[in-house]
Write a structure and sequence with these properties.
It is a single chain. By secondary structure, the chain is of the alpha/beta class. It contains 12 helices and 16 strands. Strand 2 and strand 3 form a beta hairpin. Helix 5 packs across helix 12. The longest helix is centred in the last third of the chain and has 21 residues.
C-alpha cells in the first residue's frame, strides 16, 4: 500500500475549454498550516495494527460484501446509477440517509466529530467505476455478471475502502474533532471527468487535506509505501489530422500520402522524449490509434493519429505540447501535406505534499513496506491535489484482470485509511474491539 501525500499544480477544463495549467494550493499560503498539520500528526502517532481495532464489529463482512457486489455488478464511467444506489443503501443502513449527490452518479457524506482536539477537515476519495474489460476468470463466485465490463482496475476495492472509512469515522465520532468528507467518485478516466466535478462544484472548499488510495499489483501484498513528490504523471490526449492528396497507386507522384506523413510523425515523436526531455522527467508519448486509407490501391489523403502524453512537471507538459504541434506541422510541410493539431487537457500530475509525507512514516509505525517508485499512470486525484494538500496511496492487493484481490490485504486497506482519518480528525479515539487481522505480517521499510 502506498501512501501519497500531495499537492500539485495543474487543473483542467473539459473538451470545450482551455486548460489552466497552474493553480497554487491555498493551504500552503497559510503560515500556520504547517504547524497545524505537524501538531495533529505528532499527537496521533500510533501503529497500523492498533488502527484495526477502530473498526466496529461486523465491519469486515460489510466491507467485503460491498466489494463483492460491486465486482459482480460493474458499471462504466458516467453510467453507475446502480452502483450509486447500492452505496447509498449501505450508507442508509449505517444511519446516513441523505448523502450529497454530484456528477449524476457520485455521492459524498460528511461525518462531523463531536469530541475534543484539533478540528482539521479531511476529504477521503474512492473511485467507483469499472472498465470495458472482459473478465477472464470463471471460478469467482462474484465474477462480473455483465459481459465486457469488469472492475479490472481495483475500484471495487477503492469504493469499499472508502466505505470502511465511513464505518471507522462513525465509530470514532464521539471521541474525535474535525470533519471527514468521504467522496465516492465516478468517471475517473472518461469524460466528463468526475474529479473535475469534485473540484469545480466546491466539494474541497474549506478542507485542509485529502486522502486517496489505489491498489498496485507491483507492490508485495501486505506492504505500504509513502512517496514524496510526483506520484503519477499528468495525462493529456492529442489528435493529429494529416491531409494529403488522393491518387491512384500507379501514379504516386500525383498524390500526397497522408499515411507516409503520419508514419514519419510517429517515429519522430519519440525523439522528443529521447533527445529533448530530461531523463529524470521520464515523460511518455504513446500513439494509441492510427486511422487512414480506404483502399489498397489508392494513395491515402487523410490520416488521423490519437495519442497521449504524460509528464511529471508543468514545464515538461507545456513544452511537449508545443513541440508535438511543431513536429506535426513541419513533417507535414516537408512531405507537401498539411497537419492539424488538437489537444485535450486531462488530469494534472499528483504530487505528494512534503510536510505530510514526512510525518506519514512514523505515523504508520513500523509497518511500511518498501517504497514504490512513481508509476506511469495518471489519476483524477490530480484534480483534487491541484486544489489542496493531498494523500494518495497505493495498496498491494494482488490485482490484475485475471487475479482477484487479496482480501486479507484489502482488510488492512480500510483501517489504514481510517488511521489517516484519525491522524487528521484531531483527537485520537480510544481503541475498540479488533477484527482479528493484527497478525498479518508487514515488512518494515528498507532504507
Amino acid at each position: 500500500m502506498t501512501f501519497h501525500f500531495m499537492t500539485a499544480s495543474g487543473s483542467a477544463t473539459g473538451h470545450h475549454g482551455k486548460a489552466s495549467l497552474l493553480q497554487t494550493a491555498k493551504p500552503s499560503a497559510c503560515p500556520t498550516y504547517r504547524d497545524r498539520i505537524m501538531k495533529t500528526i505528532d499527537s496521533s502517532v500510533v501503529d497500523l495494527q492498533g488502527a484495526v481495532g477502530h473498526l466496529p464489529p461486523g465491519s469486515e463482512e460489510k466491507i467485503l460484501a460491498l466489494r463483492h457486489h460491486l465486482h459482480a455488478n460493474p458499471e462504466l464511467s458516467n453510467q453507475g446509477y446502480a452502483t450509486q444506489k447500492k452505496i447509498a443503501e449501505m450508507l442508509t443502513f449505517e444511519g446516513i440517509h441523505d448523502p450529497g449527490i454530484f456528477h449524476a452518479t457520485g455521492l459524498y457524506v460528511d461525518i462531523v466529530g463531536e469530541g475534543n482536539g484539533t478540528p482539521l477537515k479531511v476529504v477521503v476519495r474512492g473511485d467507483i467505476d469499472a472498465l470495458p474489460v472482459e473478465e477472464a476468470r470463471s471460478d469467482l463466485p462474484f465474477r462480473s455478471r455483465h459481459p465486457g465490463k469488469m472492475h479490472a482496475r481495483g475500484r471495487d476495492a477503492h469504493a469499499s475502502a472508502a466505505f470502511g472509512v465511513v464505518l471507522a469515522a462513525l465509530a470514532q465520532r464521539k471521541h474525535s474533532a474535525g470533519t471527514v468528507r468521504v467522496v465516492f467518485q465516478p468517471a475517473e478516466e472518461a469524460e466528463p471527468l468526475g474529479g473535475r466535478t469534485v473540484a469545480g462544484q466546491g466539494l474541497l472548499e474549506g478542507f485542509d487535506c485529502a486522502v486517496g488510495m489505489h491498489v498496485n499489483p507491483e507492490i508485495q501484498s501486505g506492504t505500504f509505501s509513502v512517496l514524496v513528490g510526483p506520484v503519477t504523471k499528468s495525462s493529456d490526449e492529442f489528435r493529429v489530422i494529416f491531409k494529403g492528396k488522393r491518387s491512384h497507386c500507379a501514379w504516386p507522384e500525383l498524390g500526397v500520402d497522408a499515411i507516409a506523413i503520419a508514419c514519419a510523425f510517429v517515429n519522430e515523436a519519440q525523439k522528443l522524449i529521447s533527445r529533448e526531455s530530461h531523463v529524470d522527467e521520464a515523460s511518455v508519448i504513446s500513439i494509441g490509434q492510427f486511422q487512414g486509407g480506404e483502399a489498397t490501391n489508392i494513395v491515402c489523403d487523410r490520416g488521423v493519429i490519437d495519442g497521449t502524453r504524460r509528464t511529471r512537471s508543468l514545464d515538461a507538459r507545456r513544452n511537449l505540447c508545443r513541440r508535438l504541434e511543431e513536429l506535426a506541422r513541419h513533417i507535414a510541410l516537408m512531405h507537401r501535406g498539411e497537419a492539424g493539431f488538437q489537444l485535450t487537457a486531462g488530469e494534472p500530475a499528483v504530487v505528494n505534499y512534503p510536510i505530510v509525507s514526512q510525518y506519514a512514516t512514523p505515523a504508520i509505525g513500523g509497518f511500511l513496506g518498501k517504497g514504490a517508485g512513481p508509476d506511469e499512470t495518471s489519476r483524477e486525484s490530480g484534480m483534487i491535489s491541484a486544489s489542496m494538500p493531498r494523500s494518495y496511496h497505493q495498496s498491494t492487493s494482488g490485482l490484475d484482470v485475471t487475479t482477484r484481490i487479496s482480501e486479507t490485504s484489502l482488510m488492512f486497506t480500510h483501517p489504514s485509511l481510517a488511521f489517516r482519518i484519525r491522524m487528521f480528525y484531531g483527537q485520537r479515539a480510544q481503541p475498540g474491539p479488533s477484527l482479528g487481522h493484527s497478525s498479518v505480517p508487514y515488512r518494515k521499510m528498507e532504507s
